[in-house]
Specification:
heterotrimer; A alpha/beta (382); B alpha+beta (68); C alpha/beta (268); A: 382 residues; alpha/beta; Rossmann fold; seven-stranded mixed sheet; five-stranded mixed sheet; 19% strand; B: 68 residues; alpha+beta; Alpha-Beta Plaits; two-stranded antiparallel sheet
């Protein structure tokens, strides 16, 4: 029997990926352009015995899925810029208390109400630094529906593996356009289940004592181990502590468990990079236009290449450095005012050779928008 | 139901913070604060085992033990 | 089991000020749970931020100390995910009804089986004595040096209007009554609210010269009266205590399981 092929919106590809990964608790609040995720899950979760609830606002939505995650559920919420801003304090709580959850931010024109039905990629740095205090975060994205599905599964896997929130930073173009999606068979994509503690009842369970491999086995609320979960700096039992040694240890643990694995966490795609002398770096729907112009110029013998980033945070600096080592120019292609440019400049040997091809007017960036920058780089004027 | 007979008051001096709620609100004035501001039983014979001291204590520092 | 078996004794004496009423609310809660015979593994206690919310650190249950005002949203997630668990949510007055007001009215509207205990000492204690939406007018506080002009609202009427199906008010003077209404609230299937009038001697008492902790507790005796009592007619200033709402209505998690049946049965 052949594979199931669907012709769906990106939002639906995300939903299918989440269900494939084992999603069984969703809480959300309507907001363009992510509402279809909530609508589809209100339809698809109940028949599977999964839980769907529409909360009173985005703050409550993220808080509710954190509560559900503590009982052992695989959880998700979806929103867009304004809701994502409201979620930041609770996101920080999930980071501090190390609670697996997936947060989808389908970016729209910002800031503020912006252009709800149009596209931007202006939340890139909010995903990294939206919540306060030193912390680390994992953020993934995708440029097509097959990858939306795969990255959504990956988001659940990484949230369980590292016991952390993971942000899926999609955008309105991918979310709303329709495209082919081939549904992977059960078992075809690797999925990570919740790591449960093996400590027996009556024996002291430490919710925040990492094993040698750095993993932190969990114990479901309602189970045999009773412990405390808090947003305060806490000791290995989860109780508040302000002891400098404990504070330093916890913060180092929260950051290192992700930043030290930036290499392992790096998901990306390479197109014609082997001999590229101009490397385009892009992500999300912008990468579609970037790929188009690379393919078109390759046919005319120009040595262009594309590095499409799927992991945004922790920023894959090593991958960028190595793939741009031979490039005489690097062009970041994104729909904001160059939020990724400084990170690329930090990673490459020749930051002065990093350029930006962007669009900030709510219209999807096209190959033509990239064309002008290339001409300048190639010294041909516009 | 026979009137409960007081065996003793169990007092946890470490937990008592000398707030005086039990002392002031004991219907029979059985209790007082000593010089370290800790609750002490001065008129045990007047105690009617109503347990209000125990129920109202914010620090779980006093317990009324009765004869079975 | 004795009261102490429900406590995390290693953290005592607790951090609340001498004479603070929160310790007594904790005692009332524990005694109610003891009488109900609930198993410790079946209880999840969820609190927000503030003096009152540190209560979860002292009880030997599954405890979730969340962020200011959001305890009920977290608790909704826990309850809907595992309806068989008993959810108890102690909060401060500001925690529940200032920043938390939106989640309070919606949890009540849903009538989800959660017991909300509002420890109303009419002040923000943790941050050093600012007035709260429950302080009422003509009250002094560190942010009301010229006395408050903010009217407070009636938590009982607010909870009733929002849809809570069990609403009661008690005080730290009426210790036995307090524990009994908490017991009824936990046993009730649906959203239960227990407002506890309690004392903050360190800030509210001092700033408003009401006297020490025993004086403040006596104040609660003299200024409250049973629901529907004659005294209330003669002196409308008195605050009524007792059970105001105790009705049966569809509970959210039960309605959700019916929804799952509908979804599985294919009928919309």
């Amino acid at each position: 029997m052949g594979k199931t092929v669907k012709f769906v919106q990106g939002n639906e590809a995300c939903v299918e990926g989440a269900l494939y990964a084992g999603l069984n608790f969703y809480a959300g609040y309507p907001i363009t352009p992510s509402t279809e995720i909530a609508e589809l899950l209100s339809l698809k979760l109940p028949p599977r015995g999964g839980k769907f609830i529409q909360m009173e606002d985005e703050i409550a939505s993220l808080c509710a899925i954190i509560g559900a995650s503590l009982t052992g559920c695989k959880v998700m919420t979806a929103t867009s810029g304004p809701g994502f801003s409201l979620m930041q304090e609770a996101l920080g709580y999930a980071v501090m208390a190390e609670i697996p959850c997936v947060i989808v931010d389908v970016q729209r024109g910002g800031p503020s109400t912006g252009i709800p039905t149009h596209v931007s990629q202006g939340d890139l740095n909010q995903a990294r630094w939206g919540t306060h205090g030193d912390h680390a975060i994992i953020t993934l994205t995708a440029s097509n529906h097959q990858d939306v599905f795969a990255m959504t599964v990956e988001a659940f896997n990484l949230s369980e593996t590292y016991r952390t929130p993971v942000i899926l930073l999609f955008d309105e173009v991918v979310a709303h356009m329709r495209e082919k999606l081939i549904l992977p068979e059960p078992g075809e994509l690797h999925t990570v289940e919740r790591l449960k503690t093996s400590v027996k009842e009556g024996v002291d369970y430490h919710p925040y004592l990492p094993r040698e491999d750095g993993r932190l086995p969990m114990s479901d609320f309602g189970g045999v181990h009773r412990y405390n979960v808090t947003g305060l700096v806490h000791d290995m039992w989860g109780f508040p502590s302000t002891e400098p040694r404990v504070v330093h240890g916890l913060l180092r643990h929260l950051v290192d468990k992700i930043e030290n694995r930036a290499h392992e966490l790096a998901r990306f795609k390479e197109f014609h990079l082997e001999d590229a002398d101009i490397v385009l770096i892009s992500y999300g729907s912008s990468a579609r236009s970037a790929l188009h112009i690379v393919e078109e110029r390759r046919r005319r013998g120009e040595r262009l290449g594309l590095l499409e980033l799927q992991t945004l945070w922790p920023f894959p600096g090593d991958v960028v450095r190595t793939r741009c080592a031979r490039a005489r120019a690097v062009v970041v292609v994104e729909m904001n005012m160059g939020q990724m440019v400084p990170w690329v400049k930090l990673a490459v040997e020749r930051p002065d050779r990093v350029f930006l091809a962007n669009r900030i007017d709510g219209v999807f960036i096209t190959p033509a928008d990239i064309h002008n920058i290339l001409r300048i780089i190639q010294g041909r004027g516009v | 139901m026979a009137k409960p007979k007081l065996k003793r008051h169990l007092i946890n001096r470490d937990w008592c913070k000398g707030c005086g709620i039990c002392v002031e609100l004991c219907p029979k004035h059985v209790l007082e604060l000593d010089e370290q501001d800790k609750v002490s039983v001065v008129r045990p014979q007047d105690c009617i085992c109503c347990r209000l001291c125990e129920l109202r204590c914010p620090d779980f520092a006093i317990e009324v033990e009765t004869e079975e | 089991m004795a009261v102490k078996d429900y406590l995390r004794e290693r953290f005592f004496p607790h951090l609340w000020c001498p004479g603070c009423g929160h310790g007594e609310v904790l005692g009332g809660m524990i005694r109610a749970i003891e009488r109900l015979g609930l198993k410790k593994n079946d209880i999840v206690m969820v609190s927000g931020i503030g003096c009152s919310s540190r209560i979860v650190g002292y009880v030997d249950f599954h405890t979730l100390h969340t962020i200011h005002g959001r305890a009920l949203a977290f608790a909704t997630g826990v309850k809907l995910a595992r309806p068989e668990l008993t959810l108890i949510v102690p909060m401060g007055d500001g925690d529940a009804l200032a920043i938390g007001g939106n989640h309070f009215i919606h949890a009540a509207r849903r009538n989800i089986d959660i017991t909300a205990i509002v420890m109303n000492n009419r002040i923000y204690g943790m941050t050093g004595g600012q007035f709260s939406p429950l302080s009422g007018i003509n009250v002094s506080a560190t942010t009301a040096p010229f006395k408050t002009i903010d009217k407070s609202f009636d938590i009982v009427e607010l909870a009733r209007a929002a849809g809570a199906t069990f609403v009661a008010r008690s005080t730290t003077y009426h210790a036995q009554h307090l524990s009994e209404v908490i017991e009824k609230a936990i046993r009730h299937k649906g959203f239960s609210v227990v407002e506890v009038l309690t004392q903050c001697p360190t800030y509210f008492g001092r700033k408003n010269r009401i006297g020490d902790a025993p004086e403040m507790v006596k104040w609660l005796k003299d200024h409250t009266t049973p629901v529907g009592s004659k005294a209330k007619q003669e002196n409308p200033e008195l605050i009524e205590r007792g059970i105001f709402v105790d009705i049966e209505a569809p509970e959210y998690c039960e309605e959700y399981s019916k929804l799952v049946e509908r979804a599985r049965g294919g009928s919309r």
